[in-house]
Design a protein that fits this description.
The chain has helices at about 1-10, 15-25, 80-85, 105-115, 115-145, 145-155, 155-160, 165-170, 175-185, and strands at about 25-30, 35-40, 45-50, 55-60, 65-70, 75, 90-95, 100-105. With about 190 residues, the protein is an alpha+beta fold. It has a domain at about 1-115: Jelly Rolls. The strands form 2 sheets. The protein has a 4-stranded antiparallel β-sheet. The protein has a 4-stranded antiparallel β-sheet with strand order 2-7-4-5. Helix 4 packs across helix 5 and helix 6 crosses helix 9. The longest helix has 27 residues, at about 115-145. The relative contact order is 0.16.
């Protein structure tokens, strides 16, 4: 859990005692490429920290699925509406690489917010980061053309080297054929 501890310490100043209490509430989950931690229609039961690997969050079922989010190491992910309201998820979470996650149940997360005030600061920061990334994604899809979206993705080398083209094209809102044409023209 060193990666999780380091990530927590990168965002908040926390003593060893409180950090150990926090870490003791997490469990480890290993995923093989292609496996799911949540499927559409299930009720979400955990928050996830990605220690290694990558996951995609998508809507609909194959072959019509739409990749909405791609998360890599050092990101927290969750299906918040499903967790908070105990409703079926509108999204699936799938590993696109072998992945190691640290998971925490909502009740434990809430208890830590009460028990350790610094954990509230941590929670605020991770969810602010996630919100800002979501806003960037919406703006990207709403205000930029396919070429501009692809160029922005190229700046994030993880997208280009780690995300299969069918998921990258879906994330960018273009067809695989258009993505291939863009890649050829922009090299």
């Amino acid at each position: 859990m060193i990666k999780l501890a380091d990530y927590i310490r990168s965002l908040i100043d926390i003593n060893d005692h409180d950090l150990n209490i926090i870490l003791s509430n997490f469990s480890i989950k290993e995923l093989i490429k292609g496996s799911y931690i949540l499927k559409i229609g299930q009720v979400a039961s955990s928050y996830y920290f990605i220690a290694s690997g990558a996951l995609r969050i998508f809507s609909d079922e194959e072959p019509n699925d739409k990749t909405l989010w791609i998360a890599f190491e050092n990101e927290f992910i969750a299906e918040l509406p499903s967790i908070k309201f105990q409703t079926p998820s509108h999204f699936s979470f799938q590993a696109i690489e072998d992945s190691t996650l640290f998971t925490i149940e909502p009740g434990k997360m809430d208890q830590l917010y009460i028990q350790i005030p610094k954990w509230q600061e941590f929670g605020r920061q991770i969810w602010e980061k996630a919100f800002l990334k979501a806003v960037d994604n919406v703006l990207l899809l709403q205000t930029q053309n396919a070429t501009e979206r692809y160029k922005k993705a190229v700046l994030n080398t993880e997208f280009i080297h780690r995300v299969p083209l069918k998921y990258l094209s879906s994330y960018l809102g273009i067809t695989q054929t258009s993505l291939s044409r863009l890649r050829k023209n922009i090299k």
